[in-house]
Automatic annotation (TrEMBL):
Identification of the protein by name: Dihydroorotase
An annotated Gene Ontology molecular function: dihydroorotase activity
Family, similarity comment: Belongs to the metallo-dependent hydrolases superfamily. DHOase family. Class I DHOase subfamily.
GO cellular component terms listed in the entry, alphabetical order: cytoplasm
Catalysed conversion reaction: (S)-dihydroorotate + H2O = N-carbamoyl-L-aspartate + H(+)
Enzyme class, UniProt record, top EC level: hydrolase
Function text: Catalyzes the reversible cyclization of carbamoyl aspartate to dihydroorotate.
Binding site for substrate: H71, L72, R73, N103, N288, H319
Organism expressing this protein natively: Solirubrobacter phytolaccae
UniProt cross-references to Pfam families, sorted A to Z: DHOase
CDD domains, per the entry: DHOase_IIa
Pathway: Pyrimidine metabolism; UMP biosynthesis via de novo pathway; (S)-dihydroorotate from bicarbonate: step 3/3
Residues holding Zn(2+) 1: H69, H71, D161, D315
Note on cofactor: Binds 2 Zn(2+) ions per subunit.
Length: 435
């Protein structure tokens, strides 16, 4: 189900790192020995022998992160991103696996397109990549894709991300097919009759700026509808990029009723508000759903703490510089986020460290993948991070092909030193030897 360009299996000793894994209960300074790409030994004062030693002193070792919501722009939009640059960007952010969305050109809505993508990933992807296929052909919301055939070809699930499934009957039918073929059904929740031509959150700030707004109810009302359909059909849905307090409330209520519903929040919605747009009409701050209010931000944080929100996902959405260097109203929606996800949330000091790690790895299970763990016998899917390192986002460029990061120019804490994915070293900090 996941594809990547194989990396030579690592034989290294990570020495003296603070190992933290909420799932296995590790939370102490230890050595971790990796042999043939697998975790071979965990303990104190391990001997290196003749293998490479990675200095973990003063650094933290976490299970590698998994992002269920990434836009790689392949096929058809390679001027924004491609499999090599997108997965390189992910590795630089500590991710060991990502899931690509199907809103490409053409849409990933047929078996031949998906097969071609998977073949390309086996040539170009630095870390394992999974793919979602679209629910409807061409994201038009009218005719369903061949879900069974796409699942047989390796689709992890289905989404029309970038657009909502406006037709309730289509979603119902998709959930009926889900019972037969499995896979996640992920939903971009936005009622277009409410969001209209909005370019930012509808509220005091949008009124002050004279910009058309997107009300929070455009998200929450569609979530409520889809939760009701999922409950009726006994299906399982995943809500993408949650942004509003009302949405958190709807999902909490649905979970209490036994609905099989999960959801994600993105680092930018957890750390920024629409006031950032007011400071400067920076198109890097234009995304969909938009940055909302402090009240919404706090609701998302609380939702992560109490378990209403299941994981953190970046919604990494690259755009070329010339596409963003236009008036705010005309710019495309989207921000990159793979390289800044951990650091942005950690710097904001909004969640306990262990919970950040848990939520950045939880996306794996939501798409049917094993969750990375630091345990003997498991494949080495690890990230070594210097929590004390401060850095300016974008000061030395990006691994991504695009530069539209909403955190650009900001100083963050927490720098990825080394990432090991599927047993191989896929990223080293720039001042170390290149991979």
């Amino acid at each position: 189900m996941l594809d990547h360009r194989p990396t030579p299996p690592a034989d290294v000793l990570i020495k003296g790192a603070h190992v933290l894994d909420p799932r296995t209960g590790l939370d102490e300074r230890l050595d971790v020995r990796i042999a043939g790409g697998e975790i071979a030994e965990i303990g104190a004062n391990l001997q290196a022998g003749d293998v490479e030693v990675l200095d973990g002193a003063g650094r933290h070792l976490f299970p590698g992160f998994v992002d269920p919501h990434v836009h790689l722009r392949v096929p058809g939009q390679e001027h924004k991103e491609d499999l090599e640059t997108g997965t390189r960007s992910a590795a630089a952010g500590g991710f060991v696996a990502i899931v690509a969305q199907p809103n490409t050109t053409p849409t990933v809505d047929s078996a031949p397109i998906l097969r071609s993508l998977r073949e390309q990933a086996r040539r170009d992807a630095r870390i394992p990549v999974g793919f979602l296929a679209s629910i409807t052909r061409g994201l038009a919301g009218e005719t369903m894709t061949e879900m069974a055939e796409l699942r047989e070809c390796g689709a992890l699930g289905f989404t029309d991300d970038g657009k909502p499934v406006v037709n309730a009957g289509i979603l119902r039918k998709a959930l009926q097919y889900q019972k037969l073929v499995g896979g996640i059904i992920a939903l971009h929740e936005e009622d277009p009759s409410l969001s209209g031509k909005g370019v930012m959150h509808e509220g005091v700030v949008s009124a002050r700026l004279g910009l058309a707004g997107i009300p929070s109810i455009s998200e929450s009302t569609l979530i409520a509808r889809d939760a009701a359909i999922a409950r009726y059909e006994g299906g399982r849905i995943h809500i993408q990029h949650l942004s509003a307090r009302e949405s958190v409330e709807v999902i909490a209520a649905a979970k209490a009723q036994g609905v099989q519903i999960t959801c994600e929040a993105s680092p930018h919605h957890l750390t920024l508000t629409d006031e950032a747009v007011a400071e400067k009409l920076d198109t890097r701050l234009k995304m969909n759903p938009p940055l909302r209010t402090e009240d919404d931000r706090q609701a998302l944080i609380q939702g992560l703490k109490d378990g209403t929100i299941d994981c953190i996902a970046t919604d990494h959405a690259p755009h070329a510089r010339e596409e963003k260097e236009v008036p705010f109203e005309q710019a495309p929606m989207g921000t990159t986020g793979l390289e800044t996800a951990f650091a942005a949330v950690y710097t904001a000091d909004i969640l306990p460290l262990a919970l950040i790690v848990e939520k950045l790895t939880a996306g794996a299970a939501l798409v049917g993948l094993p969750t990375p763990e630091i345990a003997v016998g498991r494949a080495a899917d690890l990230v070594l991070i210097d929590l004390g390192a401060e850095w300016e986002v974008g000061a030395t460029g990006y691994e991504s092909k695009s530069e539209n990061c909403c955190f650009g120019g900001r100083r963050l804490r927490g720098k990825v030193v080394t990432t090991i994915a599927a047993g191989g070293i896929v990223y080293r900090e720039r001042n170390l030897a290149a991979v």
